[in-house]
Amino acid sequence: MIFFYFLKEVIPQFISTLIVFCSIIIISQLVRLSEVLIAFGLTAENILLPFLYIIMPFMTIIIPISFLFAVMVAFSRISADGEFFALLSAGYSLRRAAMPILVMGGVLYLIGGTSAMYLEAWGRREFVQFRYRKTQTELDNMIKFKMQEGVFLDDFIGYVIYAEHISRDRSKFTNVMLSPKEGKSSSDTIMIAPKAQITGSVESGDLRMVFFNGYAFTVKAQSEDSSVIKYRRAEIDLLRVFQQQIFGEDFAEDDYRSYPPRKLIRYVSSLKSELDEVGDEVSRVEQQKVGQSKNKLDEARETYWKATYLLFSRLSNPFSAIAFGLFGMILGVQDPRKGKSTAYIGTILTVICSYVIIMGFKWLAEHGHISAALGAWLPHVLLLSLALYLLHQRNRLPPSESPISPRNIFSIKSRK
After folding, report:
1. Which residues pair with 234 in a beta bridge?
2. Read out DSSP for 304-369?
3. Phi, psi dihedrals of residue 153, rounded to the nearest 5°
4. Can you tell me whether residue 76 is helix, strand or coil?
5. Torsion sign, CA atoms 71, 74, 78, 81
6. Contact status, residue 292 vs residue 348, Cβ threshold 8 Å
7. What is the dihedral of CA 226, 229, 230, 233, to 10 degrees?
8. In what order do the strands lie in the sheet with 208-220?
């Protein structure tokens, strides 16, 4: 009964804390979401789906922190009401009370590990695909409905476009002009052609606008220099231009962080093979070319270290839920005279210190100073070891005594 009583106290607190932290993460990502809403409009789909995709990569962080606060709040309440001290007087030790927390921490580790291995990659991948689909739909609507004969369209993927005549299937144009909007770039090129045609389709991801037998006029800003180029055929990749306009030059679809487990393992193996090939190349090149080859080798190593660390960290980061659960117990069981503020301050400091330790080992692993497996798992093993030691201290000491006091650290006398 006591086992399930502790779970009954912790689970509602965990759910409410998880919702709060998810809301905080969503608010912090409003800048990314605003780009989607501005580009594609304010609809339920454009709000809810990006929220879901964005929150998935953060679940491995949110779950352990939510569990820490939930356990701390639950045990603070039990301690403040005197229930825990009644259990102690009846012979129910803190070590026995830790069993439901360890069980729940293990379950959350499995949930967090599954989320990290599959849902994190799924969220990153789906968010990219969502933006691509919306980009294609918006561009398709622009071509089908916004472009009109004899009308200047001034919001065509950052350009102004004009067509004197548009065919019925809206794929062929006559007397066409395409000009960048004012202030778009330092070198503006105006395309003029008697005929133009749109080839490909939005669905295939290969939508291009082709100009025939026209002229390209280039005028450089803050300069009188200009040039004229006569061409027979010129192509513009409309999808690529539109994606760069909305998401910037750094928008990339093929990111190893969005790879599922098997694909990420194959990617790491291919990086290892490439690293070996580049290393052999460095050993073979002439002395004057060694510098350039070493730069290539350093880039390959850095990518390999980061990808390998990501693979191990997806399994190790959720493991902190177990240690955080024990920390929450230790911080929650306090002397009632100290108040709840001490527990909250200790919980915040625990999160900050743990984050610093994990990020420190991450930096070491991503720069090749230690192995990726060691960098991913060692900080969590250290945190769990510290949590178990403090649990032992708190179990043998009265609540009024601090488990980290020097006189208690070096004392081995157990509580009578």
Report:
1. 211
2. HHHHHHHHHHHHHGGGHHHHHHHHHHHHHS--GGG-SHHHHHHHHHHHHHHHHHHHHHHHHHHTTS
3. -100, 110
4. helix
5. positive
6. no
7. -140
8. 153-156, 159-166, 172-180, 187-199, 208-220, 226-237
Whether 301 shows a pLDDT value over 70: the answer reads: yes
For the entire predicted model, the pTM comes to: 0.72
Residue type, 162: Y
Q: Which of 300-309, 329-338, 344-353 has the lowest mean pLDDT?
A: 329-338
Can you give the pLDDT at residue 30? Answer: 74
| Backbone phi and psi for residue 159, each to the nearest 5 degrees, phi listed first | -125, 165
How many separate helices (H) and strands (E) can be counted in the chain?
Answer: 14, 6
pLDDT (mean) for 257-272: 86
CA distances, 399 to each of 181, 226, 275, 335 (Å): 70, 81, 55, 5
61 contacts 4 by C-beta, under 8 angstroms? no
- For residue 321, give every residue at least 6 positions away whose Cβ sits within 8 Å of its Cβ, in sequence order, or none: 63, 64, 67, 105, 108, 109, 112
Task: Provide the 3-class DSSP secondary structure of residue 273.
Answer: helix
| Rounded Cα gap, residues 239 and 225, in angstroms | 31
